[in-house]
């Protein structure tokens, strides 16, 4: 089965209703489809992603709130509630520890903490949502031979407590699997 989506679908995830959420680099919107390809809605993110390429989006369950990464300038993570159209973004000042450089993959734990693959900074950031604002929580380091090399994709299976990290650049050709990860509160795994 195939179906048409907005140009350059870069990120796929599931919503709380088990529908497919598609993030598109080609148009500033998210699309929600049934698993049979029926378009349920287009979620415009134009005002929250001007001139950016959206790489990944996830739903902060069980709410109708979406978090998404911007690949183009500015490099940031945004949160938006489609019903109200309100949103906010996170990116630190230039040179700040929190400065993002090509954030791509996203994963969320049961506590609502969000893990961000900060590709060009070779790190994973943990963000939290407080009073409707996305805030920096901590950096999660991964004890792996050679360190992280361009982490760009994430997948987290809460039931199995397993995090998978895909590397994209600088010799990165691995999927790193971290088992027994209860949530994203750890600073080192």
Task: Please give a quick description of this structure.
The chain has 189 residues and is an all-beta fold. It has strands spanning 9-14, 20-24, 29-33, 39-44, 54-59, 66-70, 76-81, 86-90, 103-108, 114-118, 123-130, 133-140, 151-157, 162-167, 175-178.
Please tag this protein with its features.
single chain; 189 residues; mainly beta; Neuraminidase; four-stranded antiparallel beta sheet; 0% helix; globular
Describe this protein's structure.
By secondary structure, this protein is mainly β. The chain has strands at residues 9-14, 20-24, 29-33, 39-44, 54-59, 66-70, 76-81, 86-90, 103-108, 114-118, 123-130, 133-140, 151-157, 162-167, 175-178. It has no helices and 15 strands. It has a 4-stranded antiparallel sheet with strand order 1-2-3-4, with no helix packed on it. It has a 4-stranded antiparallel sheet with strand order 5-6-7-8, with no helix packed on it. It has a 4-stranded antiparallel sheet with strand order 9-10-11-12, with no helix packed on it. A hairpin with a 4-residue loop joins strand 2 (20-24) and strand 3 (29-33). The N and C termini lie far apart (39 Å). The model has no long low-confidence stretch (mean pLDDT 85).
Residue stretches low in confidence (pLDDT < 50, at least 5 long) are none
Strand order of the largest sheet: 1-2-3-4
Measured distance between first and last alpha carbons = 39 Å
Q: Averaging pLDDT over every residue, what do you get?
A: 85
- Global structural class: mainly beta
Largest sheet: 4 strands, antiparallel
Q: How big a fraction of the residues is strand?
A: over 45%
The string of secondary-structure elements, in order, is: EEEEEEEEEEEEEEE
Shape: globular
Overall tally of domains: 1
Give the CATH class: Mainly Beta
């Amino acid at each position: 089965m195939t179906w048409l989506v907005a140009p350059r679908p870069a990120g796929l995830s599931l919503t709380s209703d088990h529908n497919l959420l598609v993030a598109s680099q080609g148009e500033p919107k998210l699309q929600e489809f049934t698993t049979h390809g029926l378009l349920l809605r287009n979620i415009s993110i134009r005002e929250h992603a001007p001139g950016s390429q959206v790489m990944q989006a996830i739903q902060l369950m069980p709410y109708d709130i979406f978090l998404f990464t911007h690949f183009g300038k500015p490099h940031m993570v945004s949160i938006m509630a489609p019903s109200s159209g309100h949103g906010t973004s996170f990116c630190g000042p230039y040179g700040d520890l929190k400065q993002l450089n090509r954030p791509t993959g996203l994963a969320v734990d049961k506590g609502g903490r969000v893990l961000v693959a900060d590709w060009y900074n070779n790190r994973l950031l943990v963000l939290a949502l407080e009073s409707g604002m996305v805030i920096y929580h901590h950096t999660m380091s991964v004890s792996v031979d050679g360190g992280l090399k361009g982490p760009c994709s994430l997948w987290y299976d809460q039931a199995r407590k397993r995090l998978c990290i895909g590397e994209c650049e600088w010799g990165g050709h691995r999927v790193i699997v971290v088992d027994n990860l209860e949530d994203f509160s750890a600073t080192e795994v």
